[in-house]
Write a structure and sequence with these properties.
Strand content: over 45%
Structural class: mainly beta
CATH architecture: Beta Barrel
CATH class: Mainly Beta
Distance between the termini: 35 Å
Number of domains: 1
Helix content: under 10%
CATH superfamily: TonB-dependent receptor, beta-barrel domain
Number of strands: 40
Radius of gyration: 26 Å
Length: 713
């Protein structure tokens, strides 16, 4: 397959049939080039998108045995997926790390989805893949179109429409560690009088008994039933003529433990159901498509997201040893606390996007809008030593009952197709934030087509991550307890924070020397400034620990990929290199492997049957330099194999079945504890001896088998 059919239509690229929806692929993109909307908010082929984009279809998701977005992202070059001790999965794009998973933006059908406190993006069982048509992934900046959090990447989850299914299906699945779930998906079109109506509905329920606590007492691994989670989800959508409405509900609950990896009283281990966090979100959107002939397309849109994060967790404090002066006997007293959480926010977005095409060679995309976050309640209530009454006032709360964060924005992007071999894109977005003021995110791109088998991209972009409600507004108070007198218990919010900033220059070359063979290479350099870190000092208003700008990181790296599709056999192998260096210390970024190799082998012996073997290799994960007091070693390399088989040809195509085996060889590996925990120590008040507070890392999932069956209707 060559790129000639696509390139002959480059002049058409600025004239999508519908700038916001997928054009007719058979008509516009005869080269079978996939169409995405994530790069510029309107439909483009991957080759034309002014970003480095990867797309996975629903068939590829099933064929490769991906259960979650975490599984999917882990197989992509340049993305490392790890886990936090709070049972949350984290995706680090190109060496850009975040303990709250807020340096890439998650979109559901183009609408941002993240919590209102930490702006965390969920990539585990929270967001199901059962009704997903395709997942579009950008590696690189996206703030010029999407604003905050589109820092190092964007993930757009595109769900089924009526044209994709023309009906529906029911699915049941079961698997290791007590995994059991059921789902139903419908996407079809009816006519009410003379008005066409599209109906979409999804319902999913999933329960998992668990594979062991993330921070396990005694380092236990694969302890079924000790880390339960539950995920419920429902989505309903209607498209009536040009009006599109949708409403989605997520309800996810998992256990949560904070302890020093030892639980001598077995309080946590024996009562795992009692300690949990729940994440509940409702997301409602409304869009209207107004077409002004072939010249312009205008889309007003509003959305409301209500986030609720209730729950409770327990933690054990450091042991305090006393020695009886008469007998010399030592007594160890363990202290602890129960914490109840209450975090409720609402986010209202309103905006208008427009695509204008004055001629076939020019397309302009512009938009304006606002985003208002209201903090309805944000507080952790601590019951010290498991007492009946909470400590007052709370040492973790937003105390202003009218707290809110407002952002106004406008963006403009223009694409000029000057000839069949050259296309230029440029634009910028301006955000006006109620706390830090104005920020501008420019972007520029050059698409070169020197021959029919070669496409080159040269790209620049600036992106930002706005400080979260946690970082801006949380008042932690001061506690007065022995040697810690006058110190903050937690990091204080700082209303004077500025956004984190990243500038990225990147390039990509894609060649198809012969039919079926694709060779791709990419390189990038990123400079991060104004990083938000916890500062230790003596601030007159914020106390001893508070959030402050100041960190910098420089990152460079690249990817090399070879893909062969021979019809019955498909092979895809990618090597990626990432070198991220902390500016203040000169150390290589904590926990980020510099070398990663991802490969996929798929065999299609007969129509409707696919067998896949996946290999993920992650090199040494740096830590030793970050842990001078504990002397914890670097994380060793990890090599995982996965296997999957899927068929869609049972009962004349009405029944589909799939089996996946993650971590096929049951490799025992761990995810590193967080950077802040790696150098944490305990000091015995009697002996003065210092010990490592977190001597064990987080036990990762062992071999996991999942079987699923779908019946169409």
């Amino acid at each position: 397959m060559t790129l000639l059919p696509l390139l002959a239509l480059v002049a058409h690229a600025a004239e999508p049939v519908d700038p916001f929806n997928e054009p007719d692929e058979a008509e516009l993109y005869r080269a079978e080039e996939r169409v995405v909307t994530v790069a510029s908010r309107y439909a483009q082929t991957i080759a034309q998108a002014p970003n480095i984009v990867t797309v996975l279809s629903d068939r590829e998701i099933r064929t490769r045995g991906y259960r979650t977005l975490s599984d999917l992202l882990r197989s992509m070059p340049g993305i490392y997926v790890t886990v936090a001790k709070e049972s949350r999965n984290l995706a680090w794009f190109r060496g850009v790390t975040s303990p709250d998973n807020n340096k890439f933006l998650l979109l559901i059908d183009g609408v941002p989805l993240y919590d209102g406190v930490y702006t965390h993006a969920w990539i585990d069982n929270y967001v199901p893949l059962v009704d997903v048509k395709q997942v579009e992934v950008i590696k690189g900046p996206g703030s010029a179109v999407y604003g905050t959090n589109a820092f190092a990447g964007v993930v757009n989850v595109v769900t089924y429409r009526a044209d994709d299914l023309q009906g529906g299906f029911a699915r049941i699945e079961a698997g290791s560690f007590g995994r059991r779930g059921a789902a139903g998906v419908l996407a079809d079109r009816i006519t009410m009088g003379s008005v066409p109506v599209e109906i979409r509905a999804t319902a999913r329920a999933l329960e998992i008994d668990g594979d062991g606590m993330d921070v396990t007492p005694g380092g236990k691994r694969n302890v079924s039933g000790s880390n339960p989670s539950r995920a419920l989800m429902g989505r309903f959508g209607l498209t009536i003529a040009d009006l599109d409405l949708s409403w989605t509900v997520y309800d996810y609950q998992h256990t949560y433990f904070v302890n020093t990896q030892d639980d001598p009283l077995s309080v946590l281990f024996q009562n795992s159901d009692s300690f949990y966090l729940a994440y509940r979100d409702q997301l409602a959107t409304a869009r209207y498509d107004l077409r002004l002939g072939n010249v312009a397309h205008i889309r007003p849109e509003i959305s409301l997201q209500i986030h609720d994060d209730p729950g409770q967790y327990a933690y054990l404090g450091d042991p305090d040893t006393t020695i009886d002066p008469d007998t010399g006997e030592a007594t160890t007293q363990w202290t602890g606390a129960l914490v109840e959480t209450e975090k409720r926010t609402s986010r209202f977005r309103a905006g208008v996007d427009a695509s204008i095409q004055p001629s076939a060679a020019h397309t302009t995309l512009l938009g304006v809008g606002s985003d208002v976050l209201r903090i309805q309640s944000l507080e952790d209530r601590e019951f010290a030593d498991f007492s009946a009454e909470p400590v007052t006032p709370s040492d973790f709360a937003v105390r202003d009952p009218n707290a809110s964060i407002t952002n106004l924005y406008g963006f403009l992007q223009h694409t000029w197709t000057s000839s069949y071999w050259l296309e230029l894109t440029g634009g910028a977005r301006v955000d006006r934030h109620s706390y830090f003021g104005i920020f501008t995110s420019p972007r520029a791109g050059v698409l070169l087509v020197p021959s029919q088998n070669l496409v080159m991209k040269i790209l620049y972009g600036r992106a930002f991550r706005a400080p979260t409600a946690r970082e801006l507004l949380v008042d932690v108070g001061v506690y007065d307890s022995g040697e810690n007198s006058g110190e903050n218990k937690f990091a204080a919010g700082n209303p004077n924070l500025q956004p984190e900033v990243i500038d990225t220059v990147e390039s990509e070359v894609t060649a198809t020397p012969v039919d079926g063979l694709t060779v791709r290479g990419a390189g990038f350099f990123s400079a991060i400034g104004q990083e938000i870190n916890v500062e230790v000092g003596n601030h007159p208003q914020l106390g001893s620990h508070y959030y402050e700008n100041g960190g910098t990181t420089s990152i460079f790296g690249g990817e090399a990929q070879t893909a062969w599709d021979g019809g019955s056999v498909m092979i895809d192998a990618t090597y990626s290199y990432t070198n991220a260096v902390d500016g203040s210390t000169g150390r290589v970024q904590y926990g980020v492997p510099q070398h990663m190799v991802n490969s996929i082998f798929t065999l299609r012996p007969v129509d409707g049957l696919r067998l896949s073997v996946l290999s993920d290799f992650f090199g040494t994960r740096p830590r030793r330099e970050w842990a001078p007091d504990t002397n914890l070693a670097d994380g060793p390399p990890i090599h995982l194999l996965h296997a999957a088989v899927a068929t869609d040809s049972l009962a004349n195509g009405r029944v589909r079945a799939d089996v996946s085996i993650r971590n096929l060889l049951d490799v025992q590996y761990t995810d590193l504890v967080s950077r802040n925990d790696a150098n944490a120590t305990n000091t015995d008040s009697t002996t003065g001896m210092m010990s490592t507070k977190y001597p064990r890392d987080i036990a990762a999932e062992g071999r996991a088998v999942t079987v699923g069956v779908e019946v169409g209707f």
